[in-house]
Amino acid sequence: MKDLTRTGQRLRIRRSRPDDADATFRWFADPLVTEFLPLAGERILPMENVIAFLAQVSRDDEPRLNVAIELYDGRLIGTASLREIVPEESAEISIVLGERDAWGQGYGREAMQLVLREAFDELKLKSVWLIVREENTRGVRLFSELGFVLEETMHAAVVIRDVPRAKLRMRLSAEAWRLRTSNLPARA
Ligand SMILES: CC(C)(COP(=O)(O)OP(=O)(O)OC[C@H]1O[C@@H](n2cnc3c(N)ncnc32)[C@H](O)[C@@H]1OP(=O)(O)O)[C@@H](O)C(=O)NCCC(=O)NCCS
């Protein structure tokens, strides 16, 4: 994957780097951050896995796009990715704001918009999809507002602390994205 930097109003996305490891480790060791992720607030991602992952996604020949989300003062607040990329077809998108004090301020929306521009304008994908736990109301609301539509409800897709939980598959098409971005003013 080539180099990339995209700038928004308050933040930028850039390719992930090995020196993002300390922040990344801290985020994936925070049970509130990982509550709705596969780690489910129960496990942490070992530092050696973080280092190996960042080394891999920093490689020029890496097919996935993994980015850091950085405020303009240089503070790293999270990460996002496009993976399972089928050229000119589709990809899975993901986002994690690892700094909890950055939640609820529209940074997730702004970062998603930058990654979606990369997906649709640069990679020319036809659609982007994601998996989100049903009770992740903040995430579901953000994705719905960006135009993602529910494609499938996977009931009891995972059991967390003995309780079966549903996962949703949501998808955004390039047409829907273009329609929204041409009709709606960008929100801060
Ligand atoms: C999910 C996540 C990316 C959202 O990013 P964010 O910057 O906090 O979201 P935004 O500030 O852009 O807000 C998105 C919407 O959620 C709303 N929201 C904020 N807090 C909320 C809450 N507790 N419950 C429901 N909605 C909430 C916001 O008001 C906003 O809607 P609005 O524009 O109608 O007001 C971020 O919270 C995060 O990374 N969480 C942990 C990891 C995670 O769950 N990732 C997604 C996995 S699929």
Polypeptide structure, described:
This protein is α+β, with helices and mostly antiparallel strands and 188 residues long. It has one domain: Aminopeptidase (3-Layer(aba) Sandwich), CATH 3.40.630. The chain contains five helices and eight strands, in the order E-E-H-H-E-E-E-H-E-H-E-E-H. Strands 1-2-3-4-5-6-8-7 form an eight-stranded mixed beta sheet, with helices on both faces. Helix 1 crosses helix 2. It is globular, with a radius of gyration of 16 Å. It binds coenzyme A.
Concise description?
The protein is 28% helix and 34% strand. 28% of the residues are buried.
Give the overall pLDDT as a whole number. Answer: 94
CATH architecture classification: 3-Layer(aba) Sandwich
Annotated CATH homologous superfamily: Gcn5-related N-acetyltransferase (GNAT)
Number of E-state strands:
8
Question: Would you list the SSEs in sequence order as H and E?
Answer: EEHHEEEHEHEEH
Q: What do we call the CATH topology?
A: Aminopeptidase
Structural class: alpha+beta
Beta-sheet strand percentage? 25-35%
Bound molecules: coenzyme A
In whole angstroms, the N-to-C terminal distance is 28 Å
Overall 3D form: globular
CATH class, named Alpha Beta
Strand and helix layout:
Layout: E1 5-7, E2 11-15, H1 21-27, H2 47-57, E3 65-71, E4 76-86, E5 90-97, H3 107-122, E6 127-133, H4 137-145, E7 149-160, E8 163-173, H5 174-183
Parallel strand pairs: 5-6
Antiparallel strand pairs: 1-2, 2-3, 3-4, 4-5, 6-8, 7-8
Helix pairs in contact: 1-2
Bound molecules: coenzyme A.
